[in-house]
């Protein structure tokens, strides 16, 4: 028959001292937090947080700016701001967009020419096929998303037309010309497409109730486009990069120039974004 062990008073005191209780757990957790904030762990946490902000600071600030802009936009939507206030709000964003658009051309040309000049022809062909496919798919997705958003949002609805503004005369203040002059100094596109005489931009169509006579001649007015031909620039830069790579030492000076331009443009973009 098994013996029944009865604990003594000393054993009971030892078991009580070594038992687990929620109060002791809370005190231990509090002491651990204090040591974390005061000890070397706090230093390591601060270093980790500093390094994380340094590596992902641009992403965090971008998300914060987007959220802040959306909140301010919804809050000020029904405030009926004046034209002057709208110009003040849109000035930093317009200035940033003009700077980025201004850097598109040197960034595309320098990066493509310097990158493709150091690649193999077979790899370049495969890369070119993937690039064209990616460009077509992204363009298709952008068109579909744009059409859907236009049908949902209806941009321009409720906007006052320029001719229906009260007062009749041009709206101008002391600061508005300064802002316009500042934005005009940063031109988003320095390469324009010349007017095409063979394919002119026709004017506004006029519909007549009567059938026009056969001797009426229509004359088209040549037009111009301020949009950049990005696809043509990409094809030209890629071709130049491939040919510079095949030229070897003779094309090395121009490749070095393109690499220097690419580094300078990236530094300018980094400074503009920050």
From TrEMBL:
Region span, Disordered: 1-23
Chain coiled-coil ranges: none
SUPFAM superfamilies xrefs: Proton glutamate symport protein (SSF118215)
Pfam assignment, any one: SDF
Annotated keywords: Glycoprotein, Membrane, Symport, Transmembrane, Transmembrane helix, Transport
Cited InterPro entries: DAACS, Na-dicarboxylate_symporter, Na-dicarboxylate_symporter_CS, Na:dicarbo_symporter_sf
Major place of residence: membrane
Molecular function per GO: glutamate:sodium symporter activity; L-glutamate transmembrane transporter activity; neutral L-amino acid transmembrane transporter activity
Polar residues bias spans: 13-22
Membrane-crossing segments per the record: 56-75, 95-116, 128-153, 228-245
Family recorded in the similarity comment: Belongs to the dicarboxylate/amino acid:cation symporter (DAACS) (TC 2.A.23) family.
This protein's name: Amino acid transporter
Lineage of origin: Eukaryota, Metazoa, Chordata, Craniata, Vertebrata
Keyword S-adenosyl-L-methionine: no
Organism: Albula glossodonta (roundjaw bonefish)
Alphabetical list of PROSITE patterns matching this protein: NA_DICARBOXYL_SYMP_1
